[in-house]
Structure to design on (224 residues):
């Protein structure tokens, strides 16, 4: 089942602008993870935020988590053409299973 | 991810045929997973294995089978019972079972029907 829903489904911005993607989920979680997928490739892990954390940074990435609203956001600052990809959130609620959202397709134009 | 090898990259299946997708890892990870991805969609879990000789059904296991005879290998068979097999199949690993740690992915196998 798809727990996470990303918003927007698609996003097109100019190089240098910031990109914000949102993820909503339905049940309680242990952590929430963001992944990136280039066309025709596997997923690459970007960042993990635990349920007791509110914000986390990694390079140009900033992730926030609001467990009361069951939502998370991924901000990519100063975007580059190489950031063009699909971005997925995935929730971990216990056990071994991750539940992935439907993804946001980001296009960064020169 | 260099530690996970999926083969072949492209695979074609005839009607009534079983096909097997390979997934090999050298990361020494305990847990392995198979996902299916349809165009414009997220990943759906087919099967997963926490340790050798053990595996569990995921959300869409019907028409698929797996084995885990070695820690390094987790092949997926798409059987003739799977009526809509055309999709992108991704294998993933996780260091420890029940760890909820990041998963590492291979580069996928794209399966099509002839």
């Amino acid at each position: 089942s798809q727990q996470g829903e990303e918003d927007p489904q698609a996003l097109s911005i100019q190089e240098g602008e910031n990109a914000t993607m949102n993820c909503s989920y339905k049940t309680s979680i242990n952590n929430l993870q963001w992944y990136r997928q280039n066309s025709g490739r596997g997923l690459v892990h970007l960042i993990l935020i635990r349920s007791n954390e509110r914000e986390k940074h990694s390079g140009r990435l900033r992730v926030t988590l609001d467990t009361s609203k069951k939502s998370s956001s991924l901000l990519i600052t100063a975007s580059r053409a190489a950031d063009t990809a699909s971005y997925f959130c995935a929730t971990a609620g216990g056990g071994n299973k991750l539940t992935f959202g439907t993804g946001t397709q980001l296009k960064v134009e020169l | 991810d260099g530690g996970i090898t999926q083969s072949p990259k492209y695979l074609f299946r005839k009607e009534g045929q079983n096909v097997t997708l390979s997934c090999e890892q050298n990361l020494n990870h305990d847990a392995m997973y198979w996902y299916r991805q349809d165009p414009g969609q997220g990943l759906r879990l087919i099967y997963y294995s926490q340790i050798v000789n053990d595996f569990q059904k995921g959300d869409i296991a019907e028409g698929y089978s797996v084995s885990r005879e070695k820690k390094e290998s987790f092949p997926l068979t798409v059987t003739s019972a799977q009526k809509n097999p055309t999709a992108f199949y991704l294998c993933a690993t996780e260091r420890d079972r029940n760890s909820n740690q990041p998963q590492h992915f291979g580069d996928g196998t794209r399966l099509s029907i002839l």
Notes: DSSP finds no helices and eleven strands in chain B.
